[in-house]
Amino acid sequence: MNGFFNMDNPVMRFLGKTFDVMVLCLLWAIFSIPIITIGASTTALYYTTVKVIRRDRGYILKEFWKSFRMNFLQATICWLIVVGGTALFCMNLKFACGIEGDMGTLLMLIYGFLGILVLGCGAYIFPVLSRFTMKTIQLLKTCVFLFFKYIPRSILLLLIVAVTVFLLYIMPGVIFILPASAALVFSFVMEPILKIYTPHEEDGEEKKDEWYLE
């Protein structure tokens, strides 16, 4: 019986991880309530999911708040850019649908592509922001580069986001388990990309916990 309650027991570890996921989802939901803070909350969600849930480093609340506070301004700006860009191209696409002939078809293709590009970059922005420090314009350029360089993964990332948003829309109750679970699945696609561009510790530098390279 004592073995069952041992924290190294697979069952207890699973229950512990499940609890962490639920707490993280609750934090994400609470910090996303103002809507304008969804970008910062999502950045913190991804960061905490990878560091705490996957790598067993740190504590949920501490790491979430650290990332949220550190990236708040830039993540909020990026969130507004993604939402504004998506809304703009959706409006233009709707307008193009009302135009007959080849011109209408051409405009639909252009606006549809630009809309997908904005959403695709949006899928990269918050994970990249959670890991690297760079100016906003450089962040956007980096995400465009990654979107085109890793097209198959980009499509998969968009699919994960789309399914997550759809499930949250039709079943709001899953908000207590889905966001962090989706971020965990998302990380298995995203992390191999981020590792490629993450510099390793140079010889002679002070040793640090490079959990993001594991």
Description:
This protein is mainly alpha-helical and 214 residues long. The chain contains seven helices and no strands. The protein has helices spanning 10-32, 38-54, 60-97, 101-131, 136-149, 151-170, 178-196. The model has no long low-confidence stretch (mean pLDDT 87).
List strands and helices in order, with pairings.
Elements: H1 10-32, H2 38-54, H3 60-97, H4 101-131, H5 136-149, H6 151-170, H7 178-196
Helix pairs in contact: 1-2, 1-7, 2-3, 2-4, 2-7, 3-4, 4-5, 4-6, 6-7
List keywords for this structure.
single chain; 214 residues; mainly alpha
Short description:
The protein has seven helices and no strands. It has helices at 10-32, 38-54, 60-97, 101-131, 136-149, 151-170, 178-196. Helix 1 packs across helix 7, helix 4 (101-131) crosses helix 5 (136-149) and helix 4 packs across helix 6.
